[in-house]
Amino acid sequence: MEAVNKQKEEKDAAVAEISSLGRVSHKLAMTDAGDPLEKVLGVLLPRLLLRIGNNHARNTANSFAKAEYDKIHAKLVEMISHAMKRVRADQQCQLPCSAILGLLYDGASKVSWQCDEIGKNEGRSIYHEFGIGISHTGSASV
């Protein structure tokens, strides 16, 4: 019975997250170009990318809420796609590259550290959820 309640709570949380993403998506769409868009993307874009990675981990761990996590993933991709279109239209808009690279670097360090600790993947490449191949020596390639 407790497992059923936990599954229901997690499913309800995923539905609430979909609703929240809908509101954020609307606010992004209504943001004016220029400085307002740059400020919003400076905060939002790294969070969206992080949420995609977290959503992927939750989706593979819990198959009972797969449909909701797939909807969350689709909404996140839709929002990133919208942001890309807006940035292409505004060539002066600057993206938060250091924050995005920080996500990649921090994740890469954790993955590399775990492999060193476990002693696996000696000389083989491992992959972070953002798609960067990281060798055992710590060098990265895209």
Reading side by side through the largest sheet, how are the strands ordered? 1-2-3
- Over the alpha carbons, how many angstroms does the gyration radius reach? 18 Å
Largest sheet: 3 strands, antiparallel
- Tally of DSSP helical segments: 4
In whole angstroms, the N-to-C terminal distance is 46 Å
Q: What general form does the structure show?
A: elongated
Strand content: under 5%
**Whole-number average pLDDT?**
76
Structural class: mainly alpha
Low-confidence parts lasting 5 or more residues at pLDDT below 50? Answer: 109-142
Write up what this structure looks like:
By secondary structure, the protein is mostly helical. 72% of the residues lie in helices and 4% in strands. It has 4 helices and 3 strands, in the order H-H-H-H-E-E-E. A 3-stranded antiparallel sheet has the order 1-2-3. A hairpin with a 5-residue loop joins strand 1 and strand 2. Helix 1 packs parallel to helix 3 and helix 2 runs antiparallel to helix 3. The longest helix has 29 residues. The protein is elongated, with a radius of gyration of 18 Å. The C terminus is likely disordered.
Considering the chains and any ligands shown, give keywords for the structure.
single chain, 142 residues, 72% helix, elongated, mainly alpha, three-stranded antiparallel β-sheet, 3 strands
Topology:
Elements: H1 2-30, H2 35-61, H3 66-89, H4 97-118, E1 126-127, E2 133-134, E3 140-141
Antiparallel strand pairs: 1-2, 2-3
Explain briefly what this protein structure is:
This protein is mainly alpha-helical. It has 4 helices and 3 strands; from the N terminus they run ααααβββ.
